Each structure stands twice: as C-alpha cells, then as structure tokens.
Amino acid sequence: MSQSQETNLQNVVAKPQPKEESDLMRTFFAGIGSVCAASVTHPIDTVKIRLQIQGEGAKLGGKQYNNIFTGMRMIVEHEGMRGLYKGITASWMRESIYSSLRLGLYEPFKRLLGATDPKNTPFYLKFLAGGMSGFIGSALANPTDLLKVRMQAWEGPPHGLIWHIKDVYSNWGIMGFYRGLNATIIRAILLNATKLATYDHIKHSLINYKILEDGYGCHFVSSVCAGVCIAVVTSPVDIVKTRLMNQPHGSKKYSGMFDCSRQIFKQEGPLAFYKGFTPQWMRFGPFTIVQLMVWEKLRDYYGMKGI
C-alpha cells in the first residue's frame, strides 16, 4: 500500500464521515448539552432565585441572602448541600424540552427566513430566528419551569417533583402550571434571540476575520460574550417571571407581569430589577460555555456542521 493510500485510510478512520444534516439529531444534541450545563450551574441558579424573591414580602424566616456567596453558605447551613440542588429534576426536564427546542429549531427558522450562507447571515435574521425558537420552547416547557422555580424557592424540608406537581394542581388546577407564562415567553424570546444571534455572529466574525479558527478557543470566546449579553438583557424580565411563578397559595399578589413590574418599581425601586444579577451572570457564563461547546462538539463528532 502506498504512503498516500495509507494516509487517506488513516483520515477515514480518524474522522467521522459527514452525515446528512438532521434537525432531529441537532435538537437531541442540544438537549444533552443543556442538561450538562444545568447540572453544573444549578447551585448558582438556586441562589439567584432566592435573591430574586427576597424583598417582595415573602416569608424568609429572617434569613437574608446578601450576595451569592453568603447565599450559598446560608443554604448549606440551613438546608445542607441538597438545598443547592433543589429543583434539579425539574431543571433537567425543562432543559430537555425548552433548550432542546430553542437551540434545535434555530437553524430551521434561519432557513425559513431565507438565510442560506451561515458565514454571512445578517444579524437581524439570526435574532429573529432565535426569538422564534425561544418562543416555542418556552411555551411548551412552562410547567417544568414553574416547578423548578417553586422547588428552588422552597426553604422547608425538600420534597420530590411529584409532591410539587400535586401541590400546584391541588391549589390551582391545570392552569396553575402556566402561571407566569407571558413573562416566561418574553424572557425566552429576548434570551434566545440575544444568545444565539450574539454567539453565531461573534463566532463567524472571528473566523471570517481570521482572528481565531473554528474550534474550542473560538467557541469559548463567543460563549462568554453571549453569556454577558443575555444577563444584561434578560435580568429585569427574569425577576418578574420568578415573582409570578412563586406566588403563595391562597393569594394572588400580582395580577400579571405589568402589575408585577409596577409593584417592584414602586416598592423596591428600579435597581430591584437587577436583584440576583451577579449569580445570573455567573450562571449564564458557565451555562452558555458548557451548553454551546458540548453542542458544537457533539455535532462535530457526529459529522455535522457547526452552528
């Protein structure tokens, strides 16, 4: 066997053969990347939830979570390490639905909007595609999102997912799982549009201008930039969503997202919309890095093109 034939054979064995682009596999890989990211960042997300509900008149047993570090320490002291992972099962369910769809449908929506060249797609088309896929994912996953928030906000002895499902249903019926739906959808549209458009645009700009090659370094830088952008854009809507989802039984403190926004502004001031911003940013950074880099690597391993 000649040396050139030997080299070609090694390349065939070493590299996965290109496969037909599959929206289903792309969506499946998005779910895997998102579940991995949620598992890594869930403790930070739990502290963020506690910070966001603080100050709305909720019973906190005198505990005050001044920042992410004291928040983590106090949760571990009063609830043990398990307290940081309250709601993890609901979080995995949420990511399996919400993030699978919002990432997996991004490229089909780009094609639908007329994007043919991934390297030179206008930013506004990426933003629209991200918003559309975020809308669908969040609308379908709202029940799991609500369960995650309520489990994370729960300061008593931990209960399982089934207990919380029964609790919500017995108090509000099936529609109880759709509390905060409007805020959830608006947040998801802003978040997904910002995340994917920013990541996609920065990644291809770095490649097109030959600043970085398509690989780990490029994916890391693009993910970090996307994480910062979505934390700034979505924090105000995120706190409204959390407050709506965590309303106590037997009362309805807020009539809707606009009433909730008004009350937060009136009672706590404009900076209250950025309560929990530090853990929000500290979560979005690692979450986005793990989620998108795992997603890209799985696609590459399977022989599919990157985003």
Automatic annotation (TrEMBL):
It is found in: Membrane. GO terms for cellular component: membrane. The keyword Membrane applies. Signal peptide: none annotated. InterPro entries: MCP_dom_sf, MCP_transmembrane, Mito_Metabolite_Transporter. Solcar repeats lie at residues 21-112, 121-205, 214-301. It is a multi-pass membrane protein. Keywords: Membrane, Repeat, Transmembrane, Transmembrane helix, Transport. Belongs to the mitochondrial carrier (TC 2.A.29) family. This is Uncharacterized protein. It comes from Halteria grandinella. The lineage of its organism: Eukaryota, Sar, Alveolata, Ciliophora, Intramacronucleata.
